[in-house]
Amino acid sequence: MSNLNILIVTYDWPPRNSIAVHRPYAWAKYWSRSGCKVTVLTAEKCVYDEPLDLEIPELDGVKVVEVPYRASLRGQSATVKKSFKRTVLEFVKKHSAFARKLLGLNLDIRDAWAKKAKKVALVLHATEGFDVVVSSYGPRACHFIGCAIKESDPYIFWVADYRDMWSIRHNSGLGGRCKRKEHKLEKRVVKEANHITTVSEPLVVQLRKFLNKDVSLVFNGYDLDLSVVKERLELARIAVPDRGPLKIVYTGMIYPGWRDPSPLFEAVNELAKEGNISLSQIHIDFFGKRQPGLQKIVSRFNAESYTTIHGHVTRQKALEEQADADLLLLLESGDEAAKGVLTGKVFEYMVSGKPVLSLGSKQDSAIGQLINETGIGIVCEQDLQRIKKCLFDLLCGGKREYFSPKLDKIKAYGREFQSRELLSMIDRQILDD
Fold first, then answer.
1. How far is Cα 222 from Cα 349, in angstroms, rounded to an integer?
2. pLDDT for 84 beyond 80
3. In the predicted model, what is the mean pLDDT of the chain?
4. Which CATH class is domain 226-412?
5. CATH match of 5-222+414-432 with 3.40.50.1370
6. CA atoms lying within 13 Å on the CB side of residue 151
């Protein structure tokens, strides 16, 4: 059993309500239970990080160090401070895309956090004597901190984790000059990392080629007891939709041009036009904090009568809506550049006990392969006829030939299993070194 002293550098941490929180949280949880001493370095959350309503248990035995962005606005009331911070941070957030595309600047206000957090990290390492530092992207600030610790102590074992890609991300929005600058920065920052990890096999291949370094696959996953998963899936096999409206649920963000629900609306409208269904037989619910352009898409397809955009809800509410759905909508781009995307959302869906309707992703993508391997749903890409058949069969007879969850496959994606696999890899590499 490992007894390593580990520092996890992650921007995403409770109470920030983001799917990104659960990867480092699971590592801290299961590594500490394995006998490791675990410290988490994260940011003191501010308005930039909203919503801040994620309620998950504090981890016993895990030390969490929160570092604020900057010194407070001295002499000002709490209301004035909060108002000022919100104004500045929202301005930066709004205009960062403009800076990337037109000025060739990749602005990220979280770099300011990194400057302050580096100092804290170095003091922590001097007093705690970490054996391992694991920095998880994004943002790039986390790797800046990991790099600073490695530069201060060449003997520490540094794992640079990529939950998302950095400069080679498919939807980065970086222009040519800005992208080239970011490529150079990324390579320089992670050059001395002892090991690289990422979330899907296609991204492993991409990173190996780009960084010319060894890269390991560490999936995202679900954090649920296997007995609960087994019970849900057994019930799911015999369950069929009731005679009320077919409830389709999407929980997550929308990225214009990359996650597009248009084929679903088109399929519903065609089924209604052909007289095969009534629009009252279907309802589509969208839950998520950022869904730009969604209302325009709904209006373009005249889908207001059977669509509701709810906006942000708590994680618990999102999980309840998933459990209440007849079909879970998963959106991702079918572009080759997005082939390796394997969002944590698909694992959340995996153990909901409800079938997944995947739109956009190709059969040979990381998402497509995972869904087909585990039997949790149907990969329709943008095939209108396939989407229509899926909906029609559910409405007319509850047929779900594509939904046959395989517990023997699904159990390998538990976060506990993935966390222990990563820890074993770190142990082996430290011994080899």
1. 9
2. no
3. 89
4. alpha beta
5. no
6. 14
User: What does the block give as tokens for 189?
Assistant: 């920052």
Boundaries of CATH 3.40.50.2000 in the chain? 5-222+414-432, 226-412
What are the CA-CA distances from residue 35 to residues 61, 304, 423 (Å)? 10, 53, 11
3-state secondary structure of 419: helix
Q: Which of 65-79, 143-157, 176-190, 351-365 comes out lowest in average pLDDT?
A: 65-79
pTM: 0.89
- Give CA 426 to chain center in angstroms: 23
Neighbour tally for 395: CB within 10 Å: 20
Nearest to 224 by CA among 216, 213, 232: 232
Over residues 363-369, mean pLDDT:
96
Residue 266 half-sphere exposure toward CB, CA atoms < 13 A: 11
- State how far the Cα of 389 lies from the Cα of 357, in Å rounded to an integer: 12
> Looking at residue 415, what DSSP letter applies?
H
The pair of structure tokens assigned to 261 is 């629900």
